[in-house]
Amino acid sequence: MALLHWKATLASPPLQMSSWQENTSPCNWTGIMCTAIPHGRRMPWVVTNISLPDAGIHGQLGELNFSALPFLTYIDLHNNSLHGALPASISSLSALSKLTLQQNQFTGKIPHEIGDLQSLMLLALSFNRLTGHIPASLGNLTMLTELVIHQNMISGPIPEDIGRLVNLQLLQLSNNTISGMIPKIIGNMTQLNVLDLYGNQLSGPIPQELGTLVHLRSLDLSSNDFSGPIPISISNLTKMNRLFLHENQIIGLIPPELGNLAMLSQLALCTNQITGPIPLELGHLLNLQDLELDENQISGSIPGSLGNITKLVRLALATNQISGSIPQEIGNLMNLKYLSLPQNQIIGSIPKTFGKLQSIQSIKLFDNKLSGALPKELGDLTNLVELAVSNNSLSGPLPTNICSGGRLQHLTVHYNMFSGPIPRSLKTCTSLVKIILQKTQLTGDISHDFGVYPQLIWMILSSTRLSGQIPQSLGACTQLTVLHLQKNNITGSIPPILSKLSRLEELRLDSNHLSGEIPPEIYTLANLYGLNLSSNQLSGSIPTQIEKLGNLGYLDMSMNKLSGSIPEELGTMKLQSLKINNNNFSGSLPDAIGNLAGLQTMLDVSNNNLSGVLPQQLGKLEMLEFLNLSHNQFGGSIPSSFSSMLSLSTLDVSYNDLEGPVPTTRLLQNASTSWFLHNKGLCGNHSGLPPCYSTPVAGHHKRKILGLLLPILLFVGLSIVAAVVVIIMLNRNKRKPQENVTSQGRDLFSVWNFDGRLAFDDIVRATEDFDDKYIIGTGGYGKVYKARLQDGQLVAVKKLYQTEEELDDQRRFHSEMEILSQIRQRSIVKMYGFCSHPAYKFLVYDYIQQGSLHRTLENEELATELDWHKRIALANDVAQAISYLHHECSPPIIHRDITSNNILLDTTFKAFVSDFGTARVLKPDSSNWSALAGTYGYIAPELSYTSVVTEKCDVYSFGVVVLELVMGKHPRDLLDGTLSNGEQVILVKDILDQRLTTPTTEENRLYLLIKLAFSCLESSPQARPSMREAYQLLIEQPSSSSCSVPFSALTLQQI
User: Fold this and answer.
1) For residues 896 and 934, is the Cβ–Cβ distance under 8 A?
2) pLDDT tens across 576-609, in order?
3) CB 272 within 8 A of CB 245
4) List of residues 6+ apart from 826 with CB closer than 8 A
């Protein structure tokens, strides 16, 4: 019998098939149904249904002899491990009406013979590994009501023949790589209820013909490349309740006619290029619950008519050009939970009617031009979880009862002009997770105005007018990772109880009036990465226990009254910046300081009482950029090893007792005279320093010769100058290419001067004045060109868009770019430097041959070559690079746009993170700084309710990229819960990139990688690991029992 033969071909028949025995009727077998059919005078029972979903079947469907089962009408084998091709022989089942094979491992093309199944009403092939095009023969299935081919690797266009499926009610082709335009003939499918085409590469205009699909209830065209305007004909679809057009290239206005879609409950047009105002007519959508228009170019004011949509739960208008004031009518939205209006140009005050928003949980108004006071009525919002109003011009007091509901978690009001006392309700607001009051004029006594917050992660109270002493209660906030109290009027001593904050990563108490000794308990904070106690009146010494701060990268104890010697133990740490200047330290500078191989930003020991000779070991600090040894009593000579400090940009040894020659280095050849002032006897070939002579007699002899030669040299020099002037005058109107420079100067970027003139000429020539034919990419900050320089070197040149604001801020641009050009990490695209010119401003990077990870995963051949071993190694590279930006750069650099497009691969699939730091560098203080970076689908969820971009935003984006790497495509369904809603069991093996063979030796590492990805995707930032922790986890050797169940049986729920 055919079924028993198929069972025999399975590697390990599941338990459900145990009843399949030769001595029993198939009609009694599990998963088999029979029907009696007339056959002459008899009514024999024949097999009509095979239903074995979730049965763990491992095998090939092609082994089943379908011709022996001619009466089959129903096959349901979804969520198994069937592999191989879909058998063309299935076309013999002329009575088949339902074929459900989703969530298996089928590969190859959809056989065109399936078009022979004339009775088929349901065809479900989603979540497989199918490739090729949609066969035109599917147009023969005129009885079909549901066609589901979601989440495969189908490519090519949507065939015109699909328009013949006039009975189709559900068409789901989403999450494939289908390209081309939507065929206009799709307008013939007038019975359609659901049309899902999201997550493909469809382009062109949205066809007007969709307006004929009058029964359509859900239309999702998101995450494609559609262009052109929204067709007005969509307003004919009056039964529509879901319209998703986000993440496209749609232009033009929002049609006012959309106000006719009275049944609409969800409207998402975000992340497009839509312009013009929000139509008043949208206020007619009385059933609308979700309105998302953010990340467009919408202008004008918010219409008061939106206040009519009383069922509205989410209103998202962020990152547009909206002006005017917030209408009072918004207060009518009694069901509103999420209000997001940040990064616009909204003016005026916050309406008092906000006090009526009794369901509101999140209010985001940051980065606008709001003024006036916060309405006291906000204190009546008992469900409020998030209030983000930073970067405005708000004033007056904070509402006293701002935490009246006891649910407030995020209060970010920084960079405003708030004044008055700290609200009383904050003291008992135990729900707080993040509080940022920075750069306000709020007053209060820190000793009494704050309480115990068991969930608090961030407390930033810097640059306010707080006084009093650091409270003991802070020691009970054990979840704290960031504590900033700098630039206040805090007095007293540092309480030892702060040592209870074992998770603390940043502690800033600088610029206060703290006194006494630093408690030794502070040195037990093993996770501390940044410690700044500068500009206080602290006394005592630095104890040897400081070496316990094993993760400390930045230490600043400058401008205090510290004394004693500098402990040798500092040399055992991982410091990147060390400032202990302006104290009373004495003794010598320990040789061990030279062991700080990671010291990069600064070593400042100036203005102390240090003496002795400078240790030769300092020359080992090859990454150090700034070294200040001034205003001490150092003697002897400047060590010759300083010639090895190639990264130095500043060396100040003034006001010491140094003597002898200044080492010959490129830096010191052009050094400022002030760096060497007031020493005992420094000499060298530097302006302001006497030359070094071996003996007095030799010196006298040289001076005599110089006296004889001087008149001759002067004459020759003047002659040369005159000749040069004549040549310049003769050639000033000629535009010639620059002559090849000598081999000594041909290393272009090593001789770049500050404004990059050499680079400017060469690059403009190489790109033919930035001709479009050299463009290899376009982004939000500018266009990227491929340039081949005169010596044959290939570079990538990012020509930045310039605004008037940026043109006026050249100094900041230069200083920021100098910082970024010093970044050297093997998995970060090398930035050679920059050019700043009145006409152009551009950055120059190393050119990476292979292209982006995104492009690689889209290419079938390259994606297959990128095997599991390479993908795991790639994830390690990216994690190491981001960890470097977060934990080893000063200031730390938050990338803000970690995506598969910004990860470049060389020909060996080595990964390089690109575009590091660009958003921070371009406009770090602008009103829309957090909008400058971030790609939809990679943005951390907290950025929907807060303006503060943290390292944990990059961690989230990394998690998305890891899943994309594992799945072979963007994990959209996992992120929005489509796959992981808990109602269906999803095997991990089923979400893996089906183009690769099932992992064997990499199972444990792959398990740990996926587990890490989900930890990075935690909705709470504090629950995510740091990138340093993520990288350490990846490079650790997994145990053989990392995965407690067989990988083939592992489910997403178990991870």
Assistant:
1) yes
2) 899 999 999 999 999 999 999 889 889 999 999 9
3) yes
4) none
What's the confidence (pLDDT) of residue 805? 44
Contacts of 370 (CB under 8 A, 6+ apart): 346, 347, 348, 349, 350, 389, 392, 393, 394
Q: Which of 969, 974, 972 is nearest to 154 (CA)?
A: 969
Q: Can you give the pLDDT at residue 545? A: 92
pLDDT of the residue at 835? 75
Q: Is 369 marked within a binding site?
A: no
Task: Compute the half-sphere exposure of residue 693: CA atoms within 13 Å on the CB side of its CA.
Answer: 10
Domains and CATH numbers, the chain: 1-156 (3.80.10.10), 750-847 (3.30.200.20), 858-1055 (1.10.510.10)
Contacts of 1046 (CB under 8 A, 6+ apart): none
Residue ranges of alpha helices (H) inside 322-367 are: none
Contact 109, 84 (CB under 8 A): no
Which tokens is 277 given?
């105002």
Q: How many CB atoms lie within 10 A of CB 733?
A: 6
Give the pTM. Answer: 0.71
pLDDT for res 1003? 81
Q: What is the 3-state secondary structure (H, E, C) of 229-274?
A: CCCHHHHHCCCCCEEECCCCEEEECCCHHHHHCCCCCEEECCCCEE
**Spatial CB neighbours of 752, under 8 Å, sequence gap ≥ 6:** 758, 759, 832, 833
> Cβ of 918: how many Cβ atoms within 10 Å?
26
Nearest to 986 by CA among 965, 1004, 963, 1005: 963
Sort residue 285 into left (φ over 0), alpha (ψ -120 to 50) or beta.
beta
The residues that are catalytic are 897
- Least Cα distance to 233 among 250, 253, 206, 208 occurs for 208
Predicted pLDDT of residue 944: 59
pLDDT of residue 702: 43
pLDDT for the residue numbered 697: 38
How far is residue 227's CA from residue 274's CA, in Å, rounded to a whole number?
10
CB 138 within 8 A of CB 159: yes
Residues of the chain with pLDDT under 70: 666-670, 687, 694-760, 778-782, 801-822, 824, 836-840, 890, 916-934, 944-948, 976-985, 1037-1045, 1055
- Give exposure, 370-409, as e/b (b: 16+ Cβ within 10 Å): beebbbbbbbbbeebbbbbbbbbebbbbbbbbbbbbeebb
Q: Which pLDDT value is given to residue 573?
A: 93
Secondary structure element (H or E) that encloses residue 587, with its range: strand 584-588
Please report, for residues 49, 82, 88, 413, 866, the alpha-carbon distance to residue 59 in angstroms, rounded to integers and kept in the order given: 19, 5, 16, 60, 26
Q: What pLDDT score was predicted for residue 771?
A: 87
Q: Which of 390, 397, 342, 340 is nearest to 372 (CA)?
A: 397
pLDDT at 756: 44
Q: 316: buried, middle or exposed (CB in 10 Å: 19+, 13-18, 0-12)? A: buried
Greatest pairwise CA separation for the chain in angstroms: 135
